[in-house]
């Protein structure tokens, strides 16, 4: 098994991370517990060791399922969760304040059935709470033993720098990791976020490497998504935000990139998902890649992306077709 350290920490993590976003049925479209348990057991039995969840995934069911699945093997797992998302209707039921983070961590520990988490991450930035308050609170979690390491998710480059400076000002524990979205469809983090993360010694655990299934070849230009697919379900949703999100992803540009991935896959006798994952895994500065399979067949398909080595011409082709305007402008 290929283990690497998480940034400048001493924590060893596998290059593949199991994302638990889909575990549970609280949002109506998730994975039932028996299948989720089977995925977790298969993942851990293969030697991988990082599982990532969050306080709000499937209304808390994700953490509960993960906690039950880890009974008897907790100490061999790097367990990561996240706080900040709303937990209720009150004004203090969200964000990175001391009151909400403390409540969120305690609730996560109860759902996970553990007295500590290995990596506690700020799910989203908070423009209202002073960063010094957030970093001092997180440092208290580390000193109490309830958290081993801290990280952030969805932070901009300037927010990363602000957080590290704030930790220094309060004499607290700095972040050691970042969890951003990254794929052939979304490469904007290469412009500023990845360089800043490298300068601060972050481990980078990327989510969304298949672009919501687009890079796995599930959607084609000119065709309607299968109602059984994620995008198909979202387009049929009665939630305007869900429909808008799906439409914003099913663009001509994204589908053209997916076609290029499929062409490369055909030449390499591989699946599009394996090619997309292999590309992300091989990028500079990437520590671990989070996968989010719903079924065992999807999990098996994802595995190939962690052994496939892309030829230089294939990487160059994918780099070119997927380069976003922000990177093109930076090079001009």
Please explain how this structure is put together.
This protein is α/β, with parallel strands linked by helices. The chain has a single domain (3-216, 271-311), classed as TIM Barrel (Alpha-Beta Barrel). 42% of the residues lie in helices and 13% in strands. The protein contains 13 helices and 10 strands. It has helices at 33-45, 61-69, 98-112, 131-144, 157-169, 193-199, 230-235, 240-249, 252-268, 272-281, 296-303, 312-322, 325-331, and strands at 3-5, 12-14, 16-19, 50-52, 78-83, 117-122, 147-153, 177-179, 203-206, 288-291. An 8-stranded parallel β-barrel has the order 3-4-5-6-7-8-9-10, surrounded by 5 helices. A two-stranded antiparallel ribbon has the order 1-2. The N and C termini lie far apart (41 Å).
User: What would the principal axes of the Cα set say about the shape?
Assistant: globular
Distance between the termini: 41 Å
Number of helices: 13
Structural class: alpha/beta
Q: Give the percentage of residues in beta strands.
A: 5-15%
Please, what is the CATH homologous superfamily? Answer: NADP-dependent oxidoreductase domain
Helix content: 40-55%
Number of separate domains: 1
Any idea of the CATH topology? TIM Barrel
Rg, please?
19 Å
- Could you describe the largest sheet, including whether it forms a barrel? 8 strands, parallel, barrel
What is the residue-averaged pLDDT?
Answer: 94
User: H/E series, N to C?
Assistant: EEEHEHEHEHEHEHEHHHHEHHH
The largest sheet has its strands arranged as: 3-4-5-6-7-8-9-10
CATH class: Alpha Beta
Pfam families: Aldo_ket_red
Keywords: Oxidoreductase
GO molecular function, one term: oxidoreductase activity
Protein name: Aryl-alcohol dehydrogenase-like predicted oxidoreductase
């Amino acid at each position: 098994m290929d283990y690497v350290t998480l940034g400048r920490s001493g924590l060893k993590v596998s290059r593949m991370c199991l994302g638990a976003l889909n575990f549970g049925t609280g949002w109506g479209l998730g994975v039932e517990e028996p299948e989720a348990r089977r995925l977790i057991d298969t993942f851990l039995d293969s030697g991988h060791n990082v599982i990532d969840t969050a306080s709000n995934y499937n209304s808390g069911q994700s953490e509960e399922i993960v906690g039950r699945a880890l009974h008897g093997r907790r100490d061999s797992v790097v367990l990561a969760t996240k706080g900040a998302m709303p937990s209720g209707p009150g004004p203090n039921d969200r964000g990175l304040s001391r009151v909400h983070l403390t409540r969120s961590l305690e609730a996560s520990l109860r759902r996970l059935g553990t007295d500590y988490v290995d990596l506690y991450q700020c799910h989203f930035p908070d423009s209202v709470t002073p960063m010094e308050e957030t970093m001092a609170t997180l440092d208290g979690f580390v000193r109490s033993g309830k958290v081993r390491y801290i990280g952030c998710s969805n932070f901009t480059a300037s927010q990363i720098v602000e957080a590290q400076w704030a930790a220094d000002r309060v004499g607290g524990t700095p972040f050691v990791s970042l969890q951003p979205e990254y794929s052939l469809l979304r490469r904007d983090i290469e412009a500023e976020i990845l360089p800043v993360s490298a300068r601060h010694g972050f481990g980078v655990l990327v989510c969304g490497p298949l672009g919501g299934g687009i890079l796995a070849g599930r959607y084609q230009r000119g065709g309607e998504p299968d109602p059984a697919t994620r995008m198909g379900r979202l387009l049929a949703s009665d939630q305007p935000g869900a429909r808008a999100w799906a439409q914003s992803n099913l663009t001509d540009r994204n589908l053209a990139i997916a076609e290029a991935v499929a062409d490369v896959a055909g030449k390499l006798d591989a699946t599009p998902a394996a090619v997309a994952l292999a590309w992300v895994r091989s990028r500079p500065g990437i520590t671990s890649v989070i996968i989010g399979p719903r079924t065992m067949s999807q999990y098996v398909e994802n595995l190939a992306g962690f052994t496939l080595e892309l030829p230089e011409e294939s990487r160059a082709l994918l780099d070119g077709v997927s380069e976003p305007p922000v990177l093109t402008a930076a090079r001009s």
